[in-house]
């Protein structure tokens, strides 16, 4: 190397160094990848004094290579082919730098175009990406053998600058995505959903497009999540999220805004009917069974819909309205939808009041229990009482349980409320057992949420012990839905309660699924035939047949049978003829305070021996007349 050559080499080195430093700086401050690429192409062309320079990017489907920026060609292609059909494609396949010192004799890849442009040599350098190459940086000179090892190293360094920048942008994008999306379902999260809603409302203010917000809540998901376990619960959510995404248009936003709540922002509906149609499709999609833990499970969703009205609709106001409509839908029953309107508004206000007031009800001693005796048919003797909770509201008087138990269940207050009821009922039951010197049974209604909680078993045993209530005299009334929907969790808790001597009774039988299967598989001691069948007993032949079938079935399974809601003598006589063992209803005694029921019990237990004398034969006219007399005795 002559001193002159050395000097030139040093000067080139310095230029390359300077160029790299500048590009690194641009890469740091520039957020637009395209600007950095333009800068790279210009700088490389200038520094190496080449005729053609370009940055090419591999398409996502890897079917072609896009030319992002290219200088030096009069009419550059927008895309070049993959594989041997191009220099870049060949380098990408080899995944390494490919130098061609003489393009006119190049056989490895197609050079026809480059040769036609008068190019003699060229280099293609890989720009690395995250898990596969981002693309290629290529340069061409009209001279053959133009590129030294130093030049190739320089190009590699430039490619590295671009590669680092691509990687940083990907990470930034991932961070942004993570901040705005739900990790489980990848759907937009609450923040992004509200942002998109605001944008949609802003667009609406400029035009007159419809904007609707739908909140979709999976019915009883908390219960399912507890019983299935959280991993399976997550599977369910992910599956339902996919269905939601598939049901809405790509231009609508489907989001997950809380644990068991999804949202859809629907823009451009022609009218409310369109929106309702979408709600119906979503409800149907959610209703299909989901594969979970090797089995299938069906869910339903309650949907609340708000359509933007007036010029000042905001994301917050729409969210409130849709939420209100959803609560209303929940009240109507699982799988319903509701559109926000004035009636919803009123219902929501009232529910909100109930919720706030209920929080104080326990601590301020506003709850009380009424009791209703259950009477043995042949003897007319009260054998048990059912505890029924009431809320003695300072302004509204006695509020029936169905007006506040569902609120307590939704808000989680049911755990505390249920504990209070159980404790009071056990205290009272133990007191009566002492006073009357009889093993009078106490039945307590329990909510499904209590029955799936494994800690409930110890809680019940503990309360019984503390209050002196005999476990064998304590009965729990559960409804069918929990047995069906939470089979395994309920089975576990109920079996353990049963092992400890508690009586288990199925309440409201006949109103739900009424399957023989679970009557057999659950450790039940008895069944209460729902009031609605007793109601129709005397005027509807079908109800008579149903009650007869239920009684026969329960007998075969050795389950005790209680008829609820007995209001007339005729009903009592008929039940007696059908062989029903126990009855409960206004005909015998209304639910009353502990004091009043205590008096009733004392009166009827004392006279029960006389009543038993009335018990007689089972057939014939005389028998029937006697039974009618017995019925009189029972209600006396
Ligand atoms: P349920 O357990 O089926 O209770 C029977 C309901 O029928 C009671 O209503 C009772 O007052 C009423 N009833 C009794 N005899 C007659 C009659 O002859 N005719 C008519 N028409 N009705 C009669 P109530 O007290 O309003 O309770 C309603 C439901 O609330 C109960 O149904 C039960 O499911 C629930 N419940 C009551 N107390 C509690 C509680 O402490 N915890 C839970 N989780 N639920 C409770
Ligand atoms: Mg009950
Ligand atoms: Mg009932």
Structure class: alpha/beta
How do the strands of the widest beta sheet line up side by side?
Answer: 14-15-17-18-19-20-21-22
**In angstroms, what is the radius of gyration?**
39 Å
Count, helices: 24
Oligomer class: single chain
Strand content: 15-25%
Tell me which CATH architecture of the largest domain applies here.
Alpha-Beta Barrel
In CATH terms, what is the fold-level topology of the largest domain?
A: TIM Barrel
Please state the overall shape, judged from the principal axes of the Cα atoms: elongated
Strand segment count: 22
Notes on the protein architecture:
There is one protein chain. The protein has 636 residues and is α/β, with parallel strands linked by helices. The protein has three domains: 3-178, GAF domain (Beta-Lactamase, 2-Layer Sandwich); 190-340, Reverse transcriptase/Diguanylate cyclase domain (Alpha-Beta Plaits, 2-Layer Sandwich), CATH 3.30.70; 355-635, EAL domain (TIM Barrel, Alpha-Beta Barrel). Helix content is 51%, strand content 19%. The chain contains 24 helices and 22 strands. The strands form four sheets. Strands 14-15-17-18-19-20-21-22 form an eight-stranded mixed beta barrel, surrounded by four helices. The termini are far apart. The structure holds ligand C2E and magnesium ion (2 copies).
Question: What would you say about this model in short?
Answer:
With 636 residues, the chain is of the alpha/beta class. 51% of the residues lie in helices and 19% in strands.
